[in-house]
Protein: Mitochondrial aspartate-glutamate transporter AGC1
Organism: Penicillium polonicum
Amino acid sequence: MAIVTEAVKESLLGSTEEPQLSHQSRSNFVRHAQKDENGELFMNEENFINAVAPKQEDYHKIKREQYGILFSVADRRRAGKLNVTDWASFENLLAKPDAEYEIAFRLFDFDGTGSVKFDTVQGLYNMNKSADSIPFDWNSEWASLYGGRSKSRHDMTYPQFAQMLRGLQGERIRQAFHIFDKDGDGFIQPEDFQRIILETSKHKLSDHVLDNLPTLCNISTSNRISYANVRAFQNVMREMDIIDLVVREATKKSKDGKITRTDFLNEAARVTRFSQFTPMEADILFHFAGLDAPSGRLSQKDFAKVIDASWRIPVIAVGQALATGHEVAEKTKSVLHGVLESAHHFALGSIAGAFGAFMVYPIDLVKTRLQNQRSSRPGERLYNNSLDCAKKVIRNEGFTGLYSGVIPQLIGVAPEKAIKLTVNDLVRGFFTDKETNRIRYSQEVLAGGTAGACQVVFTNPLEIVKIRLQVQGEIAKNVEGAPRRSALWIVKNLGLVGLYKGASACLLRDVPFSAIYFPTYAHLKSDFFGETATNKLGVVQLLTAGAIAGMPAAYLTTPCDVIKTRLQVEARKGDTKYHGLRHCATTVWKEEGLAAFFKGGPARIMRSSPQFGFTLAAYEVLQKTFPMPGEGEPITPTGHVEPSVGGQGAKAPLPYLRSRNALKLILDLDQNIGRVQVPRPENWPKFLQNSK
């Protein structure tokens, strides 16, 4: 038994053995610490707040100064400052699975005994509550169940304290309801309900819910709010993670991305083991989520106003909108601004596209050489495979031979990528439902195919010049005295009509490629990586999605690419001369078989997949390095993404997330804990009291 007790105590209070100091912990400490008179690094409370509460995070719910509460938890030596070992111990505590509750427990366990005195909890509450706070009875039946009656109080262990803390908010709401239910009929006024929630739950609810609390009375025929309404409201607020999961699953199955109350309850029955939500709870959820959408069919955007506790219209943006209003709107909508923005995106896209094309150009050259190889007999083949082709190109033409024809490729890739991306975005935007941000799969395919068709205007001339430059090194090796031609000579020799030779084959390749690529890319982002309106993906995720989407698009369109290459390459003496799509396809089938249609397929995957990855990564970096001048945050409802069951986890640092969640529990006691308190009038200096 003693061993078990010691193990529990060690779990809560930490062992005497110093925690292992990781490189990351030391780096975090050094970055925020300062030196004392002896040159030793230490953290004071301000340094600590900077370390656990980065300034760029959202503090409109829990004020940044309130993170100073946790300094006393980290200051285990009660020295008023933290050394590197104290910080490492606190970071180790944050990494525990139940860190939020354990941090709260250590805050109240002043003496480090492994238990919390009930009077300590009550004392901290009394110290922080304001003069006009709704009273709370610490001698109630509920309180006695956890700490014993007033004459026989007992200390609470960690599990007991954690359970008490979990139920504290509900008990505060229950007692407050009794105070305002003066008639004892089980009803209170809407403004009283609003005051109760603002005092007990403001730090956990979105501004949208808080601003519309009095409207809860509208879910019934009465103009007052019953205790059943209050309990149902509280249950809804506590089950936000489950609600988020149910909403995500239900909207995925809906054709238009919207669901009704019935859809929600049916999906909840599938997702949860038991019936999780009562009819009244569903009514309350749909009431608050549907205040701006009275049709009863709601999208994820509607539910986000309730589910995401940080949902709000940024104060700065609102201030700007009120201050400049019409001028800002006119400026952002001006033709000049639109032209400059398009030019900015076009320039960045051109550079990124050229970078991506340059990085994979040797693979593209190998692919072209393999596809142009006519013979099916091993003894007559110049190249056995992609690696053999690359080796022979380097041996016969030098390393620069791998970049034959790269200049026209870089010149042409800018308008090609710009047109493809722009047309796809325009067509997708036309078909996308503005409210739900949903688009049908057939419309996604149409948007991609249209983009692929439009790009052929630039792609075909680019491809035919590039291909002829890529294979002329091979001709020079096999044909003595064969001259090397420049890109300009090829353009002049072909003429305008000749530059579009094989355009039908180019269409045959680019239309299905884009029709496959863009929908696949969009669904990888949303369905696999969890991108939403509030959850933006990182560069690595976007790069990965782009690379994966390019694989099936590239390989499945390889037969079309082979036909295009054969039509656009200048036929050598003795080679079959093709007269069109059908003639080329049937001739290749008869002379070389099915396998010939997939020549260079792996090389095409190796080129297309990383090319989109490089292009996308470069574009993201360029956007961050060279942002659009004057481009600011959009004036739209926003907020930091709260972690959820069905969605992507928050991207904020772990110390901040864990510290914030611990504060959410602690502030259930009183939302003013840790805030700078204005002294009560009776505590003001006498000269101020006399001046009132």
Summary: The chain has a mean pLDDT of 78. The first strand starts at residue 34 and ends at 35. Residues 237 and 276 are 13 Å apart (CA to CA).
